[in-house]
Amino acid sequence: MATEALDFPRLVGRWFLNATSHVGRVTMLLADLVRSLNEVRIWVPRMFTEAWNIGVGSLFIVLLISGFAGGVTALQARYQFTGTIPIYYLAGVIVESIVLELGPVLTGLILAGRIGARYAAELGTMRVTEQIDALESLGRSPSSHLIIPRVVAGLIMIPVLTVFADVMGIGAGWFSMKLVLPISDADFAYGARTFWRPFDATYSIIKAFFFAACITVISCYMGFNTQQGAEGVGRSTTGAVVSSSVMILLLDVILTKLLLNQ
Fold first, then answer.
1. pLDDT given for residue 22 in this prediction
2. What is the pTM of this model?
3. How far apart are the C-alpha atoms of 175 and 70, rounded to whole Å?
4. C-alpha angle with apex 250: 89 to 36, nearest 5 degrees?
């Protein structure tokens, strides 16, 4: 009985120590990133390569998912609100849903799987094959060569992809509404303008920026600290995707509370 009674405190203590160690290592990683920012000639060319891979490589899947999201939002809005409110209200529901929530969140979750898994697997493989150790033995900073290009590229391109997702989602919602409802282009535009606020677009970009930081930093951290060979690479990749997705949802709640419910 005494052993069983001690199991829970031990579990809590072990979890607390692990969480504290992760916080400390992430802080050290961020400090190293800041120190390495002055090595511009090293990380800038690599950043352009990573930005191209993120933007062009992810554009199709982002547009595809956002298009389906916009279409489904329009069909569900028509099912829920037809006959109870003026038809142009549906345009406002679609535009606000896409810009404020579905566009940035879906883009973040998609890229957490595509970009986060890739970064964690790449850096994890480099760690277990001692490529990072070789870089350090040559006196080179792994941050400027491997991490800063990925983080900066994500901070630039993920908000850009979110803008494309917002536009695609609104366009798909517009097209879907015209298929199922007798709504004109003028009615849709009027409804969208009625509920639109200038801060909505800024809010979408702010969320995308925080999601980008979450995805890139967590995935690079997981990959950079990989251990135990191929099995460790698999755990790091899975952990990067799961942790990034959970943090995106948590940040979504926090940012909504801070920016929209003041």
1. 65
2. 0.88
3. 9
4. 120
